[in-house]
Amino acid sequence: MSLSRHASIYWTGFAVAIVLLILAPLVLPEFWRRFLTEILIWGLLAMSSDILIGYTGMVSFGHSAFFGLGMYGAAAALLMVKPPNLWLAIVYGLAGSAAVALFVAYFSTRLRDIYFAITTLIFSQIFYVIIFTWTEVTGGENGLAFSRPGFGIPGLWTTPFTSTTLHWFVLAVVAAAYLLLRRLTQSPFGMVLQSIRENEARTRAIGYPVERYKMVAVMVSGLFAGLAGVLYALQNRFAAPDFVYFVVSGEVVIFNVMGGIGTLVGPIVGAGFFLGLREGLSRLFPFLAATFNLPYLAEFPYLVPVGIIFIAMVIFMPQGLLGFAKRWLNR
Amino acid sequence: MDIPWDIIIIQTVNGIVTGMILALVASGLTLIFGIMDVVNFAHGELFMLGAYMGVVTLATTGNFWLALVVATVIIAALGAALQVVTLRPLLGRDPLYTILATFGISLVLQNYALWQFGPVARKIQEPFSGQFTLFYLQYPWYRLLIAVLSAAMIGGLYLFLKYGRYGVWIRATTQDRVMAQAMGIPVPWVHTGVFALGAGMAAASGVLFGPLVGVNHAMGLDWVLKAFIVVVVGGMGNLGGSIAASIFLSLLEAYASIWVSPSQAIIVSSVVLILTLLFRPTGLFVPTPK
Amino acid sequence: MNPPEVSAQPLISVEGVHTYYGKSHILNGVSLAVGRGEVVGLIGRNGVGKSTTLKTIMGLVNASAGRISYDGRLISGLPSHKLARIGIAYVPEDRRIFKLLTVMENLRTGLDRDGVSELRKKELLEKMFAYFPRLAERRGQAGGTLSGGEQQMLAIGRAMMLEPKIILLDEPTEGLMPRMVSQIREIIEVLHRDGVAILLVEQNVPLTLAASQRVYFMEKGAVQHHAAASDLTVDHPIIHKYLGV
């Protein structure tokens, strides 16, 4: 397939997807509108993680820390500075996650594979404990609640977000992030990252400062994860330590694998698939219970079949839902 | 400064007790990693289910020791089944996938437990009460028993590995899996057996630890994290190292708890982890390879 | 290249085996046979696929095409540990003894089998220690502390513990002193007298010709020629053809 033909098909597909996502909130009921926005946000988080897993070959279980710090950073801006400023929230959030990313990057990048994964996991738990116990600053167990800022330039003109306009804002941010990250993976820097994934020793032997590239990859990944955290804070108007718990990191990796690592857009699909499955199953069982008059079924742990499906996918379909299109999506 | 010797000694005893249980949990984890290169995320859930099996058996039979044995055996069998169904197909693939599979298993087991047993914590009654006076405290004998039993089990494991016929199989498989197979050692079954062994040890720890805290579906999470820190600090795959690290870290945390809250004490272990990774990444107690 | 005429049904029969390492086509239709109790040599330059042939027979590497039979039954695809149990032993090129296990424990990996009485185990051990007295002296030492020659003895002794019908021997004399080489030669002779078949991969031509009944020559991943060892001499043109630089 020629490059220009590929490009036209690709961009047409991209445009169609964007248009659908723009129109969706106009036809969906409130709950599903918010649900779709959440999928985009988690998708952004998973996409940031794909930079490490799919392109650099580093599995991180610490993304909950980047996400959480982005959330709390935004919370700090929205609580401390009056009037609440959207752009300041973004800046604070990115700063918070960048700081964490720097810390993690410094200590972990010299470690290989499993040790890196475990270390990032433990680091995210450290941050969890700090946030959970430092009640005066972070609100501890209860987290922080704040109001949503308006869109615009505070002082000059702002308009409050509706769930639809917020969705469009999130969509714009996520789409821009995707395009940026795609550019990055196709740039010389991205090529080096992929070379590190393929054969780290050889990349080092050629002369590339592998550690430095890895650190930058972690920082980039952390920044975009923090951005997702800011968006989440905007959407839900609270920040809680639960999101820093390592289980969230695990779910992010699940989205990556389910959707297809190394595709950037796969993780977003993976997030949609997992969350959709979870939502669907959580409604299915009470429905079945009511229909067939089997009351104990109502409480059935819907995460059990979700987990089983995930395990089955790991064994039988490790390339994920979009794995088959991996080369095509990266051209 | 007035050194609170009595508190320090009490915390030393506490640290050793917790350390021995942690050692029991961590040895299973490090054994599984050393032999199969599998990072078992579900280890905490095996610990938790072991505790629940203990609760159930105790409720039906009223005998703590029977509960300990039954729980160990059942969870060992569960471990073997899980390994055969989910991990064997993944042999030879990128280690990421085994981590993910065990993570998925932990998700399933945790939610199953929540559904089956409910969110309210259960209690395991200790087999005997009775305390002795340690300074100003009435210290339960049971806690000392835990330490002794854990040490005995770990000692048993060591002897099994060193002298038993299957111990030789396990050690050979760890060193050279391919050559072990060429010598007739059924490596796939060695893997299953080791996983079952690790699961059984985790379950036993769960039952032993049960009387000290409430048994609930989330109790595995904290232990898994601590166990991972121990395994890395002790040197992955290094049995002696994880035991030493368990006791060392538990003592540190016990002493730290004198001044900070227990949930913050984990930061101490994390600091040790960071230092270990920076300066002696193969393990604190392992001589750095040249 | 058809498998040669072997008097009775061969112990091991390899027919048209192809093996790949990733994309490399290493074995390109290998066919050979080893009769009961026969010592057969496999000669060729480095990289032609001799070791890979042994590994494929032992199930350490999967053949993508072809058949391997043992004692009349098809064994292609069986896992290595089953093959070891039915009488095929493998002594690899780099010995691969278990370095952290003692000499005794190394031997036990082959000795501890179902259906072997304690008495028989003792017999086997004693017989083996009689051939390798140095191993008897060092039985409590860790494998990694032995010299190269001793490790080779241990690797062979370990294989003998399986009471195999055939031993796949990969370059046993590599890196050994001449004195050890003749010891290896003696061991092969003893095993042959005991009725154990041997498929011997070797670069040492005089040893191979002296020890084997028949010799196969490999090149480009296939067996190109075979001859009776008695028909060959060390400076025979065939030898130069397949081993010369």
Describe this structure in words.
- The complex is a heterotrimer of chains A (331), B (290) and C (245).
- Chain A is mostly helical.
- Helices cover 74% and strands 3% of the residues of chain A.
- Chain A has helices at 3-27, 30-56, 63-80, 86-108, 113-133, 135-138, 163-186, 188-198, 200-206, 210-236, 246-259, 266-292, 303-316, 326-329; strands at residues 144-145, 151-153, 157-159, 238-239.
- The relative contact order of chain A is 0.17.
- Chain B is mainly alpha-helical and 290 residues long.
- A two-stranded antiparallel ribbon of chain B has the order 1-2.
- The mean pLDDT of chain B is 86.
- The relative contact order of chain C is 0.19.
- In chain C, 35% of the residues lie in helices and 26% in strands.
- The chains are: A mainly alpha (331), B mainly alpha (290), C alpha/beta (245).
- Chains in contact: A-B, B-C.
- Chain A binds chain B through residues 53, 59, 107-108, 111, 113-115, 117-119, 121-123, 125-126, 129-130, 132-133, 246-247, 250, 253-254, 257, 299-301, 303-304, 306-308, 310-311, 314-315, 318, and chain B through 39, 41, 86, 89-90, 93, 95-97, 99-101, 103-105, 107-108, 111-112, 114-115, 221, 225, 228-229, 232, 236, 261, 263-264, 266-267, 270, 273-274, 277-278, 281.
Descriptive tags:
heterotrimer, A: mainly alpha, ABC transporter involved in vitamin B12 uptake, BtuC, two-stranded antiparallel ribbon, 14 helices, globular, C: 245 residues, alpha/beta, Rossmann fold, six-stranded mixed β-sheet, four-stranded antiparallel β-sheet, 35% helix
